Amino acid sequence: MSQPRVPHREAPPITCDEPDSFPWQVFHERHPVLIRRILEAVPYGQAERQAFAALLRESRQDQVAPLSPEAPDFDLWQVWGKEQFGRSWQQQRFLWAESYFYRRLLQAGGYFADGGWRGVDLFAPFKHAELDAPAFTADLTALDHQHALAEGEREQSLLMTAVWGNLADLGFTIAGKGPEETGALAADESDRLWPLLDGGLVTVVADNSGRELLADLALVDHLLAGGRAGEVSLLLKPQPYYISDATPRDVLDCLDRMTAAAGAAAGIGGRLRQALRDDRLRMRTHPFACAPLGYRDMPADLREEFAASALTIMKGDLNYRRLADDRLWPPTTPFAEVTAYFPGPVAALRTVKSDVVTGLDAETAAELDAADPSWRVSGTHAVIQVATPRDRE
């Protein structure tokens, strides 16, 4: 058997050390806003508030400090950070530094410590506000319209809603971006996605809670109810992460909101609840879901699940960054080559909100760069990309 193709050369990793770059802006502009919003929303005491301030100073000026040996994930981070601790934050790869920053946010908020803040989701006020917002109510009502569409049109509408739902990511909106309108697809391989769904296992790697999760759950319901999938494994974060990333608690909160509504939303929510009872829908968490690493470094048990799936659907920008190892690939580098290590068919449904992009044709890449050099981080474009083992031969 021939070996999978791999990119002809490794692209440079995205790092934090270039002033005014997107990673630099995240650490110097977005993170201070985020911490201010957290402290406005959650009544943390002085010890926690001081810990947040110290983390912000460290992440902009000092060396990366390791976790305390008492941390429940100390051993994991000793492996994940063995070459990073003691170096400046600016020297780090962006994927690693941003992931560790969010892990340290939980520490600053007392999430793992004994005491009153143990297990408290510091992002919960933002998540709950989104569930109660008029936009979420409008999305619930929009499911009635989708339900009335003809089968093929409804299927494509659900897929597109899942793609663009990532634009409602709370980290993006906190940074001042708004999900008022969707843009255009820079790559669309949706015609390759549907034939891969053969009634077997589909793994959906979730991204954000709230409006995006609602869109994802509507798509999952369609896959199960229409026989596209016999079972769905929904891979979620085991703990709060990246502001709005979905945990099992967020799924249950979203289902509660759906079943309390009227019309199609209530029907979808009820069917998904029953699917959970019947084990046709399984919520799954894994420590690697919060790892600062690309999927190239996934552990064996996760690799086995992806290999057993008829299709793995990777949602959102962060999962795309992890698929592509968060490197500055030339945008025409084939998606199948960048994901050659992946053990089974994979589809990426992503609103583009960071620098890494692959799989574009040369004309599209040139037109986008000429029209707006910031298009990679503005959320104005999205991709649907598919790769299978056959593509990598």
Question: Care to describe what's here?
Answer:
This is Damage-control phosphatase ARMT1 family protein. Keywords: Hydrolase, Manganese, Metal-binding. It catalyses: beta-D-fructose 6-phosphate = dihydroxyacetone + D-glyceraldehyde 3-phosphate; beta-D-fructose 1-phosphate + H2O = D-fructose + phosphate. The structure is a single chain. This protein is of the alpha/beta class. It folds into two domains: 101 residues, Transcription Elongation Factor S-II, Chain A, CATH 1.20.930; 263 residues, Rossmann fold (3-Layer(aba) Sandwich), CATH 3.40.50.10880. It contains 17 helices and seven strands. It has a seven-stranded mixed beta sheet, sandwiched between helices. α1 runs antiparallel to α2, α2 packs antiparallel against α4 and α10 crosses α12. The radius of gyration is 20 Å and the shape is globular. The chain starts with 21 loop residues before the first helix and ends in a 6-residue tail after the last strand. The N terminus is likely disordered.
Topology:
Layout: H1 22-41, H2 46-61, H3 74-80, H4 94-108, H5 124-132, H6 134-147, H7 151-164, H8 170-174, E1 184-188, H9 190-193, E2 201-205, H10 211-225, E3 231-236, H11 248-259, H12 263-277, E4 281-285, H13 300-308, E5 311-315, H14 316-323, H15 335-338, E6 346-351, H16 362-371, H17 375-378, E7 381-387
Parallel strand pairs: 1-7, 2-3, 2-5, 3-4, 5-6
Antiparallel strand pairs: 6-7
Family: Belongs to the damage-control phosphatase family. Sugar phosphate phosphatase III subfamily.
Catalytic activity: beta-D-fructose 6-phosphate = dihydroxyacetone + D-glyceraldehyde 3-phosphate; beta-D-fructose 1-phosphate + H2O = D-fructose + phosphate
InterPro entries: ARMT-1-like_metal-bd_sf (IPR036075), ARMT1 (IPR039763), ARMT1-like_metal-bd (IPR002791)
